């Protein structure tokens, strides 16, 4: 059986493995939006990041296939799906935190809160744990405002 290019691995390197899943322009932004901004429906993503709908559909599908997000039929709006973060996606939280720190350090135009960045620098483990718990409970927006100050 011939393997399709989509399923081929460049190498057995763990960095390469990660990049094959989330190493494009959109994937981590979509994951960020689900975790941090409670964007859960297809229609929540495209207007915010100006992502083409065909690319959005592809990235959501890839994230679901990789076990990073889950797709459920909306219980109220039966013709729509709701996306949530799976544990495998939650485990990428430290990556997003580190990218925030890096971006804050090198992007003079970043809107990242100085309070947030200082809290990351002061106690990254505690902040990451609190963020992960609030994401799991679906209360990150409140946590973000009350505990992080952003």
Commentary on this structure:
With 150 residues, this protein is mostly helical. It is 61% helix and 7% strand. It is built from 9 helices and 2 strands, in the order ααααββααααα. A two-stranded antiparallel ribbon has the order 1-2. Strand 1 and strand 2 form a beta hairpin. Helix 6 (93-106) packs across helix 7 and helix 8 (124-137) packs antiparallel against helix 9. It starts with 13 loop residues before the first helix and ends with a helix. Residues 1-5 have low confidence and may be disordered.
Name the features.
150 residues; mainly alpha; 9 helices; 2 strands; globular; disordered N terminus
Sum this structure up briefly.
The chain is mainly alpha-helical and 150 residues long. 61% of the residues lie in helices and 7% in strands.
N to C succession of SSEs? HHHHEEHHHHH
- Continuous helix count: 9
The class by helix and strand makeup works out as: mainly alpha
The rounded distance between the terminal residues' Cα atoms is 52 Å
State the strand order across the main sheet. 1-2
How can the largest sheet be summarized? 2 strands, antiparallel
* Unreliable residue runs: 1-5
Shape: globular
Gyration radius (Cα, Å) is: 16 Å
Query: In percent terms, what proportion of residues is strand?
Result: 5-15%
Overall pLDDT: 84
Helix content: 55-70%
Q: How many extended strands? A: 2
């Amino acid at each position: 059986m011939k393997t399709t290019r989509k399923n081929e691995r460049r190498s057995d390197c763990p960095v390469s493995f990660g990049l094959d899943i989330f190493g494009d322009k959109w994937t981590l932004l979509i994951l960020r939006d689900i975790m941090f901004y409670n964007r859960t429906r297809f229609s929540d993503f495209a207007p915010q990041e100006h992502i083409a709908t065909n690319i959005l559909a592809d990235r959501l599908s890839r994230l679901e296939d990789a076990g990073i997000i889950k797709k459920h039929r909306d219980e109220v709006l039966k013709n729509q799906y709701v996306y949530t973060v799976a544990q495998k996606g939650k485990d990428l939280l430290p990556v997003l935190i580190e990218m925030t720190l890096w971006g804050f350090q090198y992007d003079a135009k970043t809107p990242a809160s100085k309070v947030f960045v200082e809290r990351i620098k002061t106690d990254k483990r505690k902040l990451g744990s609190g963020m992960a718990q609030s994401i799991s409970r679906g209360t990150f927006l409140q946590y973000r405002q009350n505990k992080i100050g952003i």
